[in-house]
Protein: NAD(P)-binding protein
Amino acid sequence: MSRPQLHTSVYPAIAPETIGQANKGQVAVVTGAARGIGAAIAEALAKSGADVALLDLDEERQAETKAACEKHGVRARPYACNVLDLKSCERTFASIQEDLGPVDILVNNVGANARRPFCMETFESFWSGVEMNLKPAMACIFQVLPGMRQRRRGCIINIASRAGTVPMPFGGAYCTGKGAIIRAVSCIQKELEMDGFGDNIHVYALHPGATLSQPSLSFHPDVAEAYPQEAAKWAQFHKLFKCPPAQCAQTCAFLAAGRGKALRGKYFDCEQDIGTVVAAGEEGLKGLYELKVDFLGGLPNDGGTAVAVIEHENK
Ligand SMILES: NC(=O)c1ccc[n+]([C@@H]2O[C@H](COP(=O)([O-])OP(=O)(O)OC[C@H]3O[C@@H](n4cnc5c(N)ncnc54)[C@H](O)[C@@H]3O)[C@@H](O)[C@H]2O)c1
Structure:
């Protein structure tokens, strides 16, 4: 199987012209839609015909996203929602149902990396970092999944990170939260398959690509002072961030339109050519694009049941 091409711009398979109005009439919710990747996702979904609910706390910039979405002739509604607060999510999703109708597409985009080593965290700061990258996504999933199961349709996309798949110093809380959402996605999809919802309800975890979306991604001054070499390394690494927010955003529009279902339940890196990856099909993607552990000698990871089988065979 050939390697998928890597991209640092919007490419033909995910281009707005290719996707057209594939999400017309759908109701989409995007969290953290006021700026950066979330704002681009809201606009890409609007461009593909979906009405969009924009969840954020930054009302001024939310209004800018709303105006950008409305240019595409869809309904766009801003909601002042703190996605870290379950009650706020419950109230907001009830309002969305009333204003726009049942949710077809949910994109959980809110997340943040404090970039601190464990030795400079308190338990509280560590835990709030884990929460920031897991709780909002789960809180919103619990709002929409029962309705999606009832209507036997829906798409949930979670903006995770490569950090959830590799260990990263200074990213303990971030990696933990992002890793957890990637694993949650695979568990949710497995249960959906088991209950016969198969590809009618499809769930994904995405790395948006190394995306230039924030004005500053530098270390906090106290961390930079304690670890100057790491801070300098990070500044160099950040220069490699080249993907525009639209690349992840258009990938979301592609997935929401049901064009990437071979990847359901999996983790995908938006720098890869999704057309090539999806063309490999479910069989071709078996055991790929997911979190796993490999053992010496190819021993299977089945929690000890293999030993029981071997002992039984040796009796
Ligand atoms: N930029 C990258 O290269 C990169 C790489 C990997 C993963 N990601 C992930 O992509 C996602 C978006 O990143 P970004 O750089 O665009 O983020 P950003 O910080 O620019 O934007 C986040 C948005 O979320 C909103 N928000 C924050 N807390 C909120 C809350 N409690 N309730 C409601 N809204 C809230 C903010 O107001 C802001 O509008 C994040 O999950 C991030 O971890 C980004």
Observations:
- The chain has a mean pLDDT of 95.
